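Tokens for chain A. Residues wanted.
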């Protein structure tokens, strides 16, 4: 039996490699499933064999089952094309199917490959892996037996170098690649002595082919093939690690607006809209993937394409509109942080806005000092926010049958508005510009269609995982407010309300509603008459009053039900989420300005400019409007309307560019089915936003000045909208005469040529 031990150092952490492994598995499955051959997954399930529950020996592969807990997979590989001709000519067809069992208990993994035609004792391949932080200096890391140690050969694989006899370098070459975000690379010979972080993949390959005349040749062939596979896949993982635009984009899905919507949805509709939340996350992922495809295929952001494809006047108008949307979103985050600081430290709202602005300015300097620390800090903010909300959720007595029932939502007249609000906010305009810009800056090595498609798959997986985390956290927020404040009686009032404790409702200066008469109750000196009925608060045994719940009162409401500790967790989670979203929106503003008009300033000037643009309006709103609870609701409504009005100016250009064969190339342009799906989704989103805006605007109380302003601003809005919705798509999708910049056309020609070979 051949025993060969490979040591492969990588410039990443063990946790980062675990994420990269997910991409490698998907990528390998995609490449191996073609030409009628590929992989058939028979089982993919958790296992627990810490106490020998599964036995000692596997009946399928006749190997020892590890005493640990992890994920078990059983696969069939159909691999006739991978076997040398001189062997396949002598073998029957059924012998060219391999059976793979794998026990993955990261950082230890075991894979055993056998063949149903050959005897298990005659043929087997075992690959045992251990992922060790730092350089592995352990003499026997995988505890080989004495007999195995006698025949073991240890080999160091250097990912920065080509393998001996390699005809051409891989498409992923760590010796020339430098990650623009983490600053890692390029890796030169001897990098392990002066570079961090470092981890080592230790892989022991055991090959047994006990057939006379073929043993040595087949065992060496399998060893060499595994060496090439390890070398290629880990070079690929090294070049794709550290790329995390999906997590930066996901931060915006945890902003003040999203959390407020989760608060009201839980308090007003219980878990009825969990399925709507999942649907909106899936639709949001679809639109983010379009942004990924545009950035990866062309190496240009959505803003750069707008500047190139539209007339100068239209592109400048789009730039101004997107900056307004980003400033509006930034104001929400500043005030979200201010609300959290006001609850935690009793800090005035205006002071909280200034403090948040200053901390954002300081934290964004991390990007210039080290991209790796910048991304790490944003990740810590997102983790802290998620942990705080999950801790609050753990204090509740959730009725899980209600959660399961909400996966299949029942839309009624009482929850229809909240459902429409949830769907209408599934995407944030500046996120599409931000995501395409980040992917474009990571995708500068577009030397072939394969690299482009690999990048798209990797970014899609990463974004999907990030959005799944945000959905999980939003469901936790749903649970906190549904279990504590939902009342069927209050949810049926035309002014939808939650059931808040008397200590919260009577001292909030907001109207309390009679759910029988559908009218406000009379409150005098923080007391209400007996004619105002009480409601049961969620799953608790307490009773309260029907009243609207907004984000600024959520901390107090939680404190009166779950205690000060739970309220502090909520406020800290809100603070972390708002701070991270403020950083992300400021970063988006910088990229949009640079890409639209090629406007570059020193980093501190850019950060200061965008901080000032958001701070001044936020201070005005904080001092003038937020002192009145009713004006707070009105303020939030207007900011939400602003995002809805500007959404088409991101969705329509993105759809048109990704539908253009001239821009995307023949192999990456959207097919007909995706075009139809995208068109329907965008039409529904824009229609819902305009419908909600129409419901919220009360024209009856407008004066002549307001009408005049509406005519002027509305006229400009309609002009730009008609151009990008009606005129520009025909020019972009079907035009074949417009010349592209030379570097873009060269890359697209490479893609098209490879796709036709």
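Reply:
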């Amino acid at each position: 039996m051949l025993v060969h031990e490979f040591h492969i150092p990588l410039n990443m952490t063990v946790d980062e490699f675990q994420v990269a492994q997910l991409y490698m598995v998907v990528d390998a499955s995609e490449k191996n499933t073609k030409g009628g051959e590929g992989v058939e997954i028979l089982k993919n399930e958790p296992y627990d064999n810490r106490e020998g529950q599964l036995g000692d020996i596997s009946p399928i592969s006749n190997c020892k089952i590890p005493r640990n807990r992890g994920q078990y997979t059983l696969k069939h590989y159909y691999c006739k094309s991978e076997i040398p001709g001189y062997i396949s000519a002598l073998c029957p067809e059924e012998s060219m199917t391999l059976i793979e069992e794998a026990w993955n208990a990261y950082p230890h993994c075991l894979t055993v490959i056998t063949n149903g035609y050959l005897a298990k004792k005659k043929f087997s391949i075992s690959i045992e892996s251990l992922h060790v932080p730092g350089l592995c200096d352990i003499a026997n890391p995988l505890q080989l037996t004495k007999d195995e140690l006698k025949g073991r050969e240890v080999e160091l694989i250097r990912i920065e170098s080509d393998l001996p006899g390699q005809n051409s370098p891989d498409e992923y070459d760590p010796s020339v690649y430098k990650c623009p975000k983490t600053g890692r690379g390029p890796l030169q010979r001897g990098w392990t002595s002066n570079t961090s972080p470092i981890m080592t993949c230790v892989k022991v390959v055991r090959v047994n082919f006990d057939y006379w005349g073929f043993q040595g040749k087949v065992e060496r062939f399998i060893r060499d093939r595994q060496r090439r596979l390890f070398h290629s896949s880990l070079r690929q993982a090294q070049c794709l690690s550290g790329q995390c635009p999906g997590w930066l984009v996901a931060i915006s899905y945890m902003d003040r607006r999203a959390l407020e919507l989760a608060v009201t949805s839980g308090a007003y509709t219980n878990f009825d809209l969990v399925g709507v939340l999942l649907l909106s996350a899936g639709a949001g992922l679809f639109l983010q993937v379009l942004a990924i495809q545009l950035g990866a295929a062309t190496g240009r952001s959505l803003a750069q394409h707008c500047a190139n494809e539209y007339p100068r006047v239209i592109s400048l108008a789009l730039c101004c509109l997107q900056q307004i949307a980003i400033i509006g979103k930034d104001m929400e985050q500043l005030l979200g942080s201010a609300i959290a600081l006001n609850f935690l430290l009793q800090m005035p709202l205006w002071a909280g806005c200034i403090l948040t602005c200053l901390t954002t300015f300081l934290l964004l300097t991390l990007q210039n000092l080290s991209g790796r620390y910048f991304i790490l800090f944003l990740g810590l903010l997102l983790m802290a926010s998620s942990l705080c909300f999950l801790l609050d959720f753990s204090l509740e007595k959730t009725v899980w049958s209600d959660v399961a029932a909400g996966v299949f939502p029942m839309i009624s007249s009482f929850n229809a508005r909240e459902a429409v609000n949830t769907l209408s906010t599934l995407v944030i305009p500046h996120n599409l510009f931000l995501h395409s810009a980040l992917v474009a800056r990571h995708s500068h090595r577009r030397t072939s269609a394969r690299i482009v498609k690999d990048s798209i798959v990797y970014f899609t997986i990463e974004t999907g995982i990030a959005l799944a985390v945000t959905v999980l956290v939003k469901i936790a927020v749903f649970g906190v407010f549904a279990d504590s404040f939902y009342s069927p009686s209050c949810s049926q009032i035309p002014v939808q309300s939650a059931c808040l404790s008397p200590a919260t409702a009577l001292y909030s200066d907001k109207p309390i509603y009679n759910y029988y008469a559908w009218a406000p109750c009379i409150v005098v000196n923080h007391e209400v008459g007996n004619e105002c009925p009480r409601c049961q608060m969620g799953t608790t045994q307490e009773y309260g009053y029907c009243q609207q719940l907004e984000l600024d009162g959520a901390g107090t409401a939680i404190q009166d039900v779950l205690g000060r500790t739970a309220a502090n967790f909520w406020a800290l989670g809100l603070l972390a989420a708002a701070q991270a979203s403020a950083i992300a929106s400021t970063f988006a503003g910088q990229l949009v300005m640079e890409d639209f008009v090629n406007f570059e300033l020193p980093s501190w000037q850019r950060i200061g400019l965008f901080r000032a643009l958001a701070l001044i309006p936020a201070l005005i709103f904080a001092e003038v409007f937020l002192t009145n609870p009713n004006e707070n609701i009105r303020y939030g409504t207007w900011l939400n309307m602003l995002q809805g009005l500007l959404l088409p100016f991101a969705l329509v250009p993105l759809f048109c560019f990704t539908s253009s064969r001239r821009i995307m190339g023949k192999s990456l342009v959207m097919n007909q089915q995706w075009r139809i799906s995208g068109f329907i989704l965008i039409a529904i989103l824009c229609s819902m936003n305009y419908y909600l805006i129409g419901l919220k605007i009360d024209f009856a109380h407008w004066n002549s000045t307001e009408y005049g302003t509406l005519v002027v601003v509305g006229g400009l809005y309609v002009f730009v909208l008609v151009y990008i919705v009606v005129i520009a798509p025909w020019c972009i999708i079907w035009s074949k005469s417009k010349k592209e910049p030379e570097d873009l056309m060269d890359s697209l020609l490479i893609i098209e040529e490879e796709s036709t070979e």
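The two ends are 42 Å apart (CA to CA). The chain has two domains: 2-240, 245-486+559-639.
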